[in-house]
Amino acid sequence: MGTQIPTSNDRSRTYWTPTMERYFIDLMLEQLHRGNRIGHTFNKQAWTDMLAVFNAKFESQYDKDVLKSRYTNLWKQFNDVKELLGQTGFAWDENRQMVVADDGLWHDYIKVHPDARSYKTKAVLNFNDLCVIYGYTSADGRYSRSSHDFDFDDEVQGVIMGDPTGSLSSNSERPRTEWTAAMDQYFVELMLDQIGRGNKTDNSFVKQAWTDMLSSFNAKFGPRHDKRILRHRYKKLAKYYSDLKVILQQNGFSWDETQQMIVADDDKVWDAYIKAHPHARTYRMKTLPTYNDLVLIYGNGGDNDIQSNFLQDKDHEADISRKKAEAGKGSHSLGSSDRTRTYWTPPMDHYLIDLLLDQVQRGNKFGQTFISQAWIDMTASFNVKFQSHHDKDVLKNRYKHLRRLYNEIKNLLDNSGFSWDETREMITAKDHIWDAYIKAHPDARSYRVKTVPGYQKLCVIIGQENSGGRYSRLAQCIDANEEIPVLMTGK
Length: 491
What we know:
Elements: H1 18-33, E1 37-38, E2 41-42, H2 44-58, H3 64-85, E3 91-93, E4 98-100, H4 103-112, H5 127-133, H6 181-196, E5 200-201, E6 204-205, H7 207-221, H8 227-248, E7 253-256, E8 261-264, H9 267-276, H10 291-298, H11 314-329, H12 336-339, H13 346-361, E9 365-366, E10 369-370, H14 372-386, H15 392-413, E11 419-421, E12 426-428, H16 431-440, H17 455-462
Antiparallel strand pairs: 1-2, 3-4, 5-6, 7-8, 9-10, 11-12
Helix pairs in contact: 1-2, 1-5, 6-7, 6-10, 8-10, 11-14, 13-14, 13-17
């Protein structure tokens, strides 16, 4: 496939692609799930196992120091983002997967902390998982503009309860609650007892029930908890139940009573589902011993108010309809001065590419562009997704950029010695071939280390070839003069 195997001399210039980083993070999450993390790092066998699997995946010959160095780098990245989110006015945007704040706040902060400049435009694609690995709460409702009020993630160290204004509480004001399996089990038993007493109405419990449960809970686990902690845990467990219920409704998934977790018929089922629903990744390795009890607690009427991350609600569809009407009228257009300041993150690119694919499937692409209504629809959906007010020209300009990207990659792959690495999603070639080509074409230097996760889809959208012929075994040649076929997107 043309994958480059680094020697010891090349180790200092290890090119970490998003695909490699995502795989490494999944390996760490698995080792964490197995209990192989001690203190701030993993045990020796965990590093050995992760290295062996990683090298097998990417056909490489790295040593442990390469992975450990990346582990340290990711830890610093996590701490940088966590420090930013602790500042007033900074928030986590789950859709764009980046820290957001007003320009004035960024200007003042960067003036004092110049090293933080990159985070103004940088997407941190795996931040929620880094929160799990490095032992803190995830980018939840205290940070996010778009998350549900119950989206608190306490995979390892528990929930850090925020105050009502959304600011971070200091440890002295509100100590961190570390939820253990024993605490969850006891809390579930308390709730079942209250249900048996008839003290649950609609989607919550009566006031006296919360008082009684808190009293019993504190008698068993200490007096430092209050009702707010139990209520947040109640909502968190509701989210678990709702998410699991949605996954179990999909073909190929089932509940394993022995392991007390969701299992799939094979890895491809999980891979396809996670690709469409990234938030489901954690459930691939997550056990939930109380699931059958949660069915009793939340199974009757709980689904109406507690929506899973994977469900598209009617409000979202209404927003898209409203945005379409606004786009058709030309409202919410950005001025030309604002348009040049659009920061395109990988999630934004991925979403735009999926929108373009959908319009191709609908037959709304003619020649090298799309019909007017297609741009209106895509702009509306895009603005709803990212809570923005872009106009059609912003998306059209990005489409032109993606066309240029595709053509440059295609030109490179037409040269002898270059090939497409499907695993790392980048162009590969031997060093001497790269050196000679870059000497003649200096502008191509970036592609030596650049990943293009959406390239396969761009091949279909732009309609020349789907990484075809000698580029990929997944090839399906598409004649630009033929009618655009119905797409199989893998969903």
